[in-house]
Amino acid sequence: DTEVTQTPKHLVMGMTNKKSLKCEQHMGHRAMYWYKQKAKKPPELMFVYSYEKLSINESVPSRFSPECPNSSLLNLHLHALQPEDSALYLCASSQRGLAGGLPETQYFGPGTRLLVL
Amino acid sequence: AQKVTQAQTEISVVEKEDVTLDCVYETRDTTYYLFWYKQPPSGELVFLIRRNSFDEQNEISGRYSWNFQKSTSSFNFTITASQVVDSAVYFCALLMGGSEKLVFGKGTKLTVNP
Fold it and tell me: Which residues of B fall within a CB distance of 8 Å from A56?
């Protein structure tokens, strides 16, 4: 089973709102990722958690705050977003993070379509 | 620097035609991994194949086949007897050994018309 689940599927929020995106996997993967994808563009890496520790932050603005409560869950907290943050947010997981050796295939969830008004 | 080029932005074919999606990559690393992902309109990125730099064996899976050639730094993807359900954006991606960051090409949008 290579399923990564994401909730909600769609989210509309105002610029003053606080919301969270949730990602879950039960494959025993130890690396989890957040990507942002604008229309007609490839996904762009935002954050990587490896063994529940933040290992990569691709200079993402602080209005995006990731959290990894345990090895199965990954959250992305959103606050004071801008309209240009509207995008598809994809979560992915892979079997081992860097600490585990060779990189593994990343499996993606269905994404959350975010609209910031 | 690492780079993936998918020169075909959009391809349109009629059902049952064969179609090849091109992917050219650049890296100085000797250990790297290449991937193809499919993204249907629903948005989910579906993993199709992974190929390691030290394994140039081509692969066939049903109607899908992949041609990996290190000499030309290419990893092309062929769909035989295309079907409407193959309509999607296809991404080729590169991952260096010791890295967690996938480098994606810009994607090729394939439309298969009935």
Answer: 100-101
